[in-house]
């Protein structure tokens, strides 16, 4: 039973995900509508539950199982499994001339620590993975690949790892730099004919963090060098942490061998913030501002209002609060709702709410009177497939998501499936008056 289901899952999630996350699952039992799987660690369980929980449930129910819940439990016997490979002995081919001062890293921002990082649902996995790496124990996943949109905390987390490691393991050479700086160093070394030094320098690093790696896409020789550096470090079992604004597979003009290397370790995304996380961040910031601006009054509801209205990214949210406090202290007034709206009118206007794929799915499901779970579920009957295609079409039209990203939000479908759906609706829109009308209604409702 579970065996055939696994095969089915392999097709949906792809080889990489399957190997890492599905294969290790052990079926434990099925009672009263709840299936339990054994997992090696809590972290593992959380990850699988978040990312594949719904999918597994779908597969089970569509296979005729009466299941309402899927649980992941750490199995008792996984505690005495052999520990992961230890970190390799520090290699000694590195010339002694490499000292910490000559390391190629960029300076770290003192504000970006784990203490100041507010954790919520959208970033808890990224945070957990970062903390694990920061413990400086044996390398368990390599690389750690963090991705997510602008201002969601990728750089913050990387700096936090670096700060922590410097505290805990001062013996390690920890280097943080942006992909752009990597390229700059590389070009400089080429120009000055110092490639040997360049290679030696980077290969002497114990923990390498490269931020915004999408930057090297399309830059052939930099990619080549990055690939060699990457492989050399992985071979020595040195930890690598990479960030990008999208998943490895979705970075255009990045060599396939690099993409697949980047996918080898743990890939975690920072999801867009939710209301609770934004509120938490604002509250933390206000605590800090209270020291800077003692005596400043903040009216009830202002933070909630901001958390609700500014949903783009954390950087904008922080900027708004900074401006608000500076302005209020300048004019010596309490921060009221009114003052907030005056002072931030441009920011508030610019961050008018954005339509999400999830919202579209919900609206379309309502409109056609089908269940939301069927919208993303595997069934292919026409009565479900058509609304699904409508939702895919609208997602393509009204959001900035790419086809693969949309596919993922529709229960892990392939981008070609999405493309097919979008095309089909484009055709029908011309041929079928009813569909055209539905689309118009839905679009208006969503943009309202
Ligand atoms: P990214 O590198 O993903 O574009 P950054 O790490 O530069 O984003 O974060 C942008 C700003 O938002 C920084 O000032 C950072 O401290 C702040 N920030 C982002 N996420 C959080 C969080 N969860 N808690 C506290 N501050 C955050
Ligand atoms: Mg960044």
The largest pleated sheet is described as: 5 strands, parallel
Which structural class should the secondary elements be placed in? alpha/beta
Strand content is 5-15%
Which bin fits the share of residues in helices?
Answer: 40-55%
Give the tally of β-strands. Answer: 8
CATH class of the largest domain: Alpha Beta
Say which molecules are bound, naming each kind only once: adenosine-5'-diphosphate, magnesium ion
Taking strands numbered 1, 2, ... along the chain, how are they ordered across the largest sheet? Answer: 5-6-7-4-8
CATH architecture of the largest domain: 3-Layer(aba) Sandwich
Q: Write down the CATH topology of the largest domain.
A: Rossmann fold
Shape: globular
> For the CA atoms, what is the radius of gyration?
25 Å
* Weakly predicted, low-confidence segments: 78-99
Give an account of the 3D structure:
The chain has 448 residues and is α/β, with parallel strands linked by helices. It has four domains: 2-77, DnaA, N-terminal domain (GMP Synthetase, Chain A, domain 3, 2-Layer Sandwich); 100-270, P-loop containing nucleotide triphosphate hydrolases (Rossmann fold); 275-350, Helicase, Ruva Protein, domain 3, CATH 1.10.8.60; 357-447, Chromosomal Replication Initiator Protein Dnaa, Chain: A, CATH 1.10.1750. 54% of the residues lie in helices and 10% in strands. The chain has helices at 2-22, 42-62, 124-134, 154-168, 179-191, 195-203, 220-235, 256-262, 275-292, 302-309, 314-331, 337-343, 345-350, 357-368, 372-376, 382-398, 403-409, 415-431, 433-447; strands at residues 26-31, 34-39, 69-74, 144-148, 174-178, 207-211, 239-244, 266-270. It has a five-stranded parallel sheet with strand order 5-6-7-4-8, with helices on both faces. It has a three-stranded mixed sheet with strand order 1-2-3, with helices on one face. Helix 7 (220-235) links the parallel strand 6 (207-211) and strand 7 (239-244). The longest helix has 21 residues, at 2-22. It binds adenosine-5'-diphosphate and magnesium ion. Residues 112, 116-118, 123, 148, 150-156, 281, 314-315, 318 line the site of adenosine-5'-diphosphate.
